[in-house]
Structure formats: C-alpha cells, structure tokens
C-alpha cells in the first residue's frame, strides 16, 4: 500500500461523508450525484492502485 492509494481512499471516504451530509441537508440532486461520482472514482482508483493484485 503506497501513499497515493491511501490518499485516494481517504479522499473517497471524505467525499462519501459529504454525500451523506448533502443528502441530509436536501441539497440539489445534481450536486449529490456529482459528488458521489467523484467519491466512487477516488475509491476505485485507490483500490486499483493497491499492490495486493500482483
């Protein structure tokens, strides 16, 4: 596990917290979808960069 994968996973989890917070505040749906897409991409990139696959 290198530093960049850790940063991407932590950033993805932070963005998921933002999605939950924005949903509770009833923010616009487009903003929530955009934020959740960014969180999913961060988490996917972080997991794919892990060195456990080889």
Q: What number is the mean pLDDT?
A: 93
Largest sheet: none
Helix tally equals 2
Derived from helix and strand composition plus strand pairing, the structural class reads: mainly alpha
Number of strands: 0
Rg, Cα atoms, Å: 13 Å
Element string (H = helix, E = strand):
HH
Low-confidence stretches: none
Our measurement of the CA-to-CA distance between the termini, rounded to an integer number of angstroms, reads: 12 Å
Shape: elongated
How much of the sequence is in beta strands? under 5%
Helix content: over 70%
Q: What does this entry look like structurally?
A:
Helices cover 78% and strands 0% of the residues. The two termini are 12 Å apart. By secondary structure, the protein is mainly α. The protein is built from two helices and no strands. It is elongated.
Outline the fold blueprint.
Blueprint: H1 3-24, H2 29-48
Index terms:
54 residues; mainly alpha; 78% helix
Quick structural overview:
The chain has helices spanning 3-24, 29-48. By secondary structure, the protein is mainly alpha-helical. The two termini are 12 Å apart.
């Amino acid at each position: 596990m290198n530093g960049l994968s850790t940063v991407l996973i932590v950033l993805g989890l932070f963005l998921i917290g933002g999605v939950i917070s924005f949903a509770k505040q009833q923010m616009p749906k487009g903003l929530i979808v955009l934020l959740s897409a960014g969180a999913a991409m961060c988490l996917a990139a972080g997991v794919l960069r892990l060195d456990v696959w080889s």
